[in-house]
Amino acid sequence: MSEGQRFQLGTIGALSLSVVSSVSIVICNKALISTLGFTFATTLTSWHLLVTFCSLHVALWMKMFEHKPFDPRAVMGFGILNGISIGLLNLSLGFNSVGFYQMTKLAIIPCTVLLETLFFRKKFSRKIQFSLTILLLGVGIATVTDLQLNMLGSVLSLLAVITTCVAQIMTNTIQKKFKVSSTQLLYQSCPYQAITLFVTGPFLDGLLTNQNVFAFKYTSQVVFFIVLSCLISVSVNFSTFLVIGKTSPVTYQVLGHLKTCLVLAFGYVLLKDPFNWRNILGIMVAVIGMVVYSYFCSVETQQKASETSTQLPQMKESEKDPLIAVENGSGVLSDGGGGGGVQKTAAPVWNSNKDFQA
Description:
It comes from Brassica campestris. By secondary structure, the chain is mostly helical.
């Protein structure tokens, strides 16, 4: 099996794990919040991260992965930013209507595309832009209902979108820059995320629900679903970093909207949630957008791979022949000495991310 085939299988596995674990935790949390009345979402998320860190620490102790320390300031900033983005998303949901919150989530994709275009010079083809437009239209039809606006809610939503986009871009950038795996990054950033939410969680939950998380009556059923939710969250957190590291923040957001459609469908089939023609039409349009996006991404990835494979032999040949090197513009550099100066062939350098099309 070639390296490219192994990468494709790994990507498919990461995407599948992300979908299954995310849909599972949504169903579990819906039972916990809607049925059992445990509405402390931010505090629950902090517990998720604490359990994830403990699980990864056990995995490290069992030598299932290697600890690779890197820039501590980058890790701390990334972890705190991730925690803040989660808290802002919860506040956005609390101070806005459900419809406006869904619009906030939809805005993450175009915001990510804009940030990556401006600061990372990534190019998104018209085909990719077209497929993303179809996807967003479908999810909007399926999920957006009312759009009640208020100043505080709008500001919180704007901050939530910006911090979420930056955090997800950082997830991809840090893994590539420091050459760390998703597991290594998650292990080092988890404590900062957990502490940020553990400190702010009870306050935010109290502000949104007018209840005290520590005064809640924890029955055996509530404890069971909390433990189950925390265990599933290990897979959710791991697959999130894995998907963003193997693909891109935009692809992760596309996958997130697929999860939204699946949750709507599961809610109708399993929980008998209300469903109408708008939900059905929106899901169908969104699925078409996802299929088109996946197809265009696959085609463009294959094109880039073929271009790279044809360029490499030319690069190697130009390194062997100084005359060809000059003709190709790679240059023959002299150390500035006289006739006895040593000549050095400058190897061509290109940025593999510059022309990347997500």
